[in-house]
């Protein structure tokens, strides 16, 4: 392992729907599983685990960001710009409903980034984002002129 890998376990109310979304739509290879209990997925080298826990599934509360209702509880990936654009097209083609359609924040300014939010079949929110300049990922001041 050349870098730390992220591990996230999250609830789902239908393991086959999770398999269809994470494995089918997002293209995450499957790892181990305990039938009826959980499934491991490889999300770009990170281990995410869908656990059957229907009582834990509910939509997250949202906070206002740029006039959008951003789900407070969410996870996702930072992608290269072209990969982010391709994923947006793939999600549209698969008719995955967006919580927030792909859009660009701070266009032409420090921290320029693309973001989009989708919800899996169990109401888990995922954000996929990208930065024009990878050095802006942890930049403290965004939206200022370069």
Automatic annotation (TrEMBL):
InterPro entries linked to this entry: Glyas_Bleomycin-R_OHBP_Dase (IPR029068), Glyas_Fos-R_dOase_dom (IPR004360), VOC_core (IPR037523)
Span of domain VOC: 4-131
One of the Pfam families matching this protein, by short name: Glyoxalase
Region forming the signal peptide: none
Protein name per Swiss-Prot or TrEMBL: VOC domain-containing protein
Organism, scientific name: Parvularcula dongshanensis
């Amino acid at each position: 392992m050349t870098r730390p890998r992220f591990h996230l376990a999250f609830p789902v109310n239908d393991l086959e729907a999770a398999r269809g979304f994470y494995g089918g739509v997002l293209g995450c290879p499957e790892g181990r599983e305990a039938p009826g209990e959980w499934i491991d997925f490889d999300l770009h080298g990170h281990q995410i685990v869908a656990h059957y826990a229907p009582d834990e599934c509910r939509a997250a509360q949202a906070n206002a960001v740029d006039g959008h209702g951003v789900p407070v509880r969410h996870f996702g990936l930072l992608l290269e710009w072209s990969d982010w654009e391709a994923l947006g097209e793939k999600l549209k083609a698969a008719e995955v409903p967006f919580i927030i359609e792909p859009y660009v924040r701070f266009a032409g300014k420090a921290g320029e980034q693309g973001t989009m939010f989708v919800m899996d079949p169990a109401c888990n929110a995922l954000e996929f984002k990208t930065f024009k300049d990878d050095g802006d990922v942890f930049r403290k001041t965004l939206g200022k002129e370069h």
